[in-house]
Amino acid sequence: MKAKPRAKNEGEREEGASGEESGSISCSFSSDKLIEMKNNKIQFLAGDGYKRLQIVEADEKTKSIHMICELGKITWPLRFDKLEEVHHKVHTGEVALIPYEMDRLVPTWGNFVTGLLRHLGCDKH
What we know:
The protein has one domain. The chain has five helices and four strands; from the N terminus they run H-H-E-E-E-E-H-H-H. The chain has helices at 19-22, 31-39, 80-92, 99-105, 110-119, and strands at residues 43-45, 52-59, 64-69, 78-79. The radius of gyration is 15 Å and the shape is globular.
C-alpha cells in the first residue's frame, strides 16, 4: 500500500472539485485580500510577465478596484463581482488563466486580471 502524501497541499489536488472551500490548494482571493494588497502597496506582474501592477484603490462602497501600472497609468474601475465571476470560472476549469481568455470575459482587463489571479495563487489549482 502506498502512503498518502501530505494532505496539506499536493495530495488533495484532484479530490476537492471545489477546492476553494476545502483549503487544499486554495488561493487567497477575497475582497479583504484585495484591500490588504492596496493598503500594503503589494506589486505583482501582469499576465505577460512584464508590467508591474499595483492596486491603488479598493472601494468597499462601489465594490470595485483600480490598478496602476509602472508607467503611472490608472485603470478604470473593475467591479469585484465581475472579478469574482471570472475567479470562479478559472477554478471550475471553464476558462484558462491566460490573458487572451480573460480578455474574452473582461475586455481590456485580460492581462491585468491574469496577473492578479496568478499572484493570488489561482494558477495552482
